[in-house]
Amino acid sequence: MHVGRLRERAPSAESIEVAELSNHQLMFNKRGRDGSGKCNLIARNASCVYGVVYRIDIKQWRSLDRAEGSGYGRRHLIVNGLSGGRPYRAFLYLAKTMSVDDALQPYDWYRDFVVLGAEQHGLPKTYVAQLWRVPVRGDPNGRRSRTQFNIMKHL
What we know:
Layout: H1 3-9, E1 14-31, E2 37-55, H2 61-68, E3 72-81, E4 87-95, H3 108-120, H4 125-132, H5 142-154
Antiparallel strand pairs: 1-2, 1-3, 3-4
């Protein structure tokens, strides 16, 4: 969701509109290559996930797929724009079953990227507050952690 982070992977990324996906919940239960929890959506009645619809040049999808990793699959889902209620047929990355582990937690820097992206786009304040409350753990790789926090400062 973070504009700068996404543009590192897909330079053509242009945010279109904040949107919601009904009957889904954001979880950090996708096993990342680094062993931490990454974002995933699960079906959950009476829940709602907020995000951003981006337009990305189709030539950059392969690069984005590589960055997201093999534990995700792209799926089409219908999301609804918040400003006008327009439906969008959007690609979303959902974790493959073999990559899900509900015991995972995200690293602090990863959660912070998610929250800062939510703040950049003006997602509902109550939703942003929920994101800030997601339990995190410190990255045992201090070098990677410092690198990610430095990237965050410069985006």
